[in-house]
Amino acid sequence: MRQTNFNTFSRLPNDVKEYVFRKGKTELVPSVTVGSGATGAMWSNTDDMLKLLRMYLRNGQPIVDDKTIAEMETPHSWLGVKEGLRSGYALGNYYSHYYNKYGFRGHDGLLGTCYSKCMYNRELGLGFVIASNSNNPNTKIEELVAAFVEQNAPPQKLPNQPLDRKAIEPYLGFYQFDSPRNEIARLMDLFMNGLKVYVENDTLVFKTLEGQKTKLLQTAPMVFRREGMNASTIAFAKNADGKNVLSMAGVYFEQSSYAWGLFWRSLLGLMLILVLVSGIAAMGSLFGAVRRKLTWRVVFVRFMPIVSTAFFGYAFTKLFEKQQFSYLIYQFNDINAETLLIFVATTFFGLAGVICGYFAFNMTMQANHIWGKWFWRLTYVSMAVLAIVFFKYGIIGIRTWAM
Questions:
Q1: Domains along the chain?
Q2: Structure pTM?
Q3: Which long-range contacts (CB under 8 A, 24 or more apart) does 196-203 make?
Q4: Per-residue pLDDT tens for 363-401?
Q5: What SS3 state is found at 225?
């Protein structure tokens, strides 16, 4: 593999041209590399990736033995391993294409706009490599290629067994997601992900917070696969603390109270809505100041929730933009106008929460009517609570250059 290297910090020449398709036009963008190390830093091409693929199809020969390949394909870090499941992430190797006739193993890569995927099935002796240099998703092409290479393979005989109602009974209920992608996304991941597990017509079902239902078919004691999938990916077990957990291809959920999950999500949502609505009320306060019924200090405090939230929201649009167009991530490595804006905006939100928390309990001259006083008190309390929650989850004072 002479065309493969670990190009960290862009220290090696890189003649790869990268493009994004945006607003109906194709644009040439800078080609960048990851500076953190091996993760995401390997550059290769289809010729070298085909050599790697052939090694897997030959059970590691002539480089390693078949036991080493089997070890690389075996997950080690999720609870489903104890139940014999091989789906999920292994040693630089994972299982995918669950809805094809057969699954494939391998790995993919995305850096800037360069995307590649190297997948194989040792049982069938088949595999494929895909590589591109634009931000157009290759998912549909990949599915077509996978279906094509396995079209002559016979259908799989998948194991099934009747649902063990007695064994699964203690594991029914609500499960809270608890394996976030990273620190900044942790709160959003917790807020957006949860599952309700129940039995319907003698079939185990889970339902997402959005209401999407999925039937689960039992394949072994406490092990299940989704209806239509070619492999088992779900295991119910107990963690080290004795709590009931659901592990899904390496994604981790803990059994929790549905009422509590609904309460804290609703509370956070209502507080955010209250802060946003306060912007309209703050605009009305301007007229009160002009008519000298309110002091400008009061108007200033009333504008703090909506202004700080607007800056906070803008900062996160910049963060999500980098996530969507990862070739821009290198801009976060240094102190510049954009990274300073993110730091100042998220810090300002925290300071606004402290100030609003103070005025929540010092309402003198903040409102003339009882309803107005309670509205602004609740708004200020909401700001203070949101600031505390955001601080707890590491999204106050974000310094991207220090990550």
A1: 5-149 (3.40.710.10), 165-256 (2.40.128), 263-402 (no CATH)
A2: 0.83
A3: 196/258, 197/171, 197/172, 197/173, 197/246, 198/172, 198/173, 199/163, 199/165, 199/168, 199/172, 202/163, 202/165, 203/163
A4: 655 556 777 788 988 999 999 999 999 999 999 999 888
A5: strand
